[in-house]
Amino acid sequence: MSAHLSLAGSTVADSWPMARVMAGMSAMPVAHAIDLAFLFPAAQPHHDALIAETRRHLGGCLTAIETALRVALDQFPEIAGILALSPDPLCWRIICDQPALLSPALLAHMRLRGGVSLMLRQLGQRDADIGEPVEADGQAVDPAPGDALAALALAESRWMTPGGEDWPMRPDVPREFFTEMVWTSSACLAEVVRRAAPDRADVMLAAFERAGWAVLADHDESVSPLMEAERLVRRMEERADAPDLLGAALGGRRFLLFAALAARRLRLTMIQVVDILVMAPLPQLAALCRSLGGSDGDYRHLLLTLRPVRPWLTDTMVIVEAERYQQLDEAQADAMVAALRTPASFRAKLDHLLSVRAA
Questions:
Q1: Residue 144 gets which letter from DSSP?
Q2: What is the H or E stretch that residue 141 is in?
């Protein structure tokens, strides 16, 4: 196995549709064009669960941002009056018509959020579980003081709540993605207003810029379930290193707690671990499990647990992958994980050079 296997997570490798030809897409990376074809097909075939969840997060976050922008624009009566003529959400509809407005990084992050939602919903969460300690080695382990587990459960429940694509969802995304979505939404609304009043373009641009900055100032990414899980593990301190806690978290259906514990032990970021669990090629998933000390049985359990986001993992494939896992020693796995600690841009460039030299 190569120690330089890139950290995938933004493409589906086993079923690529033909990307439709669109004006303005000629300079777009091919993989991103394929992603857009998956998420915004010209015809509307049956969406698989991950695509549906990704669209729900995209549409919901954009709709929430649009609502905040409309509120910020109320101080500009002329603009507010034009937007009031279209009370239904506009931005998501425009994005569906012009999906090239979405950057590859934003699309990959939203797919990751969709995968987490799918895992949380498929694994389930009993009301009685909220705030209860995880059990490890037959004993209760109180992972953190106060209501940290309840805060995580509440954040998870927001992502689990079903809804339509244009139902507002709290945009608890990292600031760089929130910034992109704010200016994308601002551009969508500004285009609508500009068509209605072309002679007022200069004044309206200033108004939209002011509204955008106001919305950005109110952003809080700390309430994301990803951040809540990281915060919980930090508060656990040395208790997070309890030998059986990883298995207990996964067995107790606490997916994000498992990911945060794994990130701490492997010295990776939470986003990296979640991406490996949800999206990455199986060799990376196997390396993660082996570096955590996972047995052959643990790896089979992990594969079965991840079926909601990897439905192609049939019983036969699980058996085959479990046999491959037996051939992966700890040194190989540690080398792969060590490579993931280097900057992503460095790994991508190195992967490219290695593949070119091998061709």
A1: S
A2: strand 139-141
